[in-house]
Design a protein that fits this description.
This protein is about 45% helix and about 5% strand. The protein contains nine helices and two strands, in the order H-H-H-H-H-H-H-E-E-H-H. Helix 2 (about 15-30) runs antiparallel to helix 3. The chain binds flavin mononucleotide.
């Protein structure tokens, strides 16, 4: 028979205590103590849990650490809350950081939502990128940002605009908005992605104009 070391025995301390408590409660019951029943139930349930943990084969943690091993599962179940309330920094978490979320909560509650200028982000850290306004803007001669699609052999080469209207479906936008965007696209000679919403007569009408 395998003999356990003292450290290994230590794992069963809590189970040992509950068994001892159960015996003590039984002695109290025999002595006619009023609180005995409550202790019998508490220690009885804990002992049953410990024996179940010892004999089950699904979780090594519970087998090795009966009763007390449940703390691990308990902590795991509240891990997101612990992270959110105690550990998470303002800029952690994707897609919405704590900072962004709290702004949404504040606005939803009609609370003060103004932010001072400046940022709490580490903007000089490697990997942080941003677009800065120039105090001396460059003059760009070609403002027609286009890229040719199709070489000399292509029968229908196409000068695609780099700026286009991204998908916004009819339904998400009103018919008038779609028609206005579509007319703008025609004027500027760029593409208008109509999105995947309900196909609208208005889109067809707008496209025709
Ligand atoms: C009102 C509205 C409607 C949209 N409808 C669609 C759609 O039908 N299909 C689609 O793929 N994307 C749709 N989008 C997403 C946009 O095409 C685009 O990807 C998104 O707005 C991100 O670009 P932005 O950061 O320039 O706004 C919609 C966006 C908005 C604001």
């Amino acid at each position: 028979m395998k003999v356990l070391t003292s450290t290994q025995y230590a794992r069963y301390t809590i189970l040992g205590c509950t068994i001892f408590g159960l015996f003590a409660a039984a002695v109290m019951a025999v002595a006619g103590h009023q609180a005995a029943l409550a202790f019998l139930v508490i220690f009885g349930l804990l002992t049953a849990l410990g024996i179940h943990d010892l004999t089950q084969r699904h979780h090594a943690v519970l087998r090795n650490y009966p009763i007390i091993g449940h703390i691990r599962f308990l902590l795991e179940s509240i891990r997101p809350e612990i992270r959110q309330y105690l550990i998470e920094s303002d800029n952690d978490e994707l897609p919405f950081s704590r900072e962004a979320r709290s702004l949404v909560y504040q606005r939803a509650k009609g609370a003060e939502d103004k932010r001072p200028f400046g940022t709490s982000e580490k903007v000089y850290e490697a990997g942080y990128s941003w677009v800065t306004h120039s105090v001396a803007p460059k003059i760009i001669t070609d403002t027609d940002f286009r890229i040719p699609i199709g070489g000399p052999e292509c029968r229908q080469p196409y000068d695609a605009s780099l700026y286009n209207i991204s998908a916004m479906s009819f339904g998400a936008l009103s018919g008038n908005a779609i028609a206005a965007l579509n007319r703008g696209a025609k004027k500027g000679g760029f593409a208008h992605d109509t999105g995947e919403g309900g196909s609208a007569a208005i889109t067809a009408k707008a496209a025709a104009t």
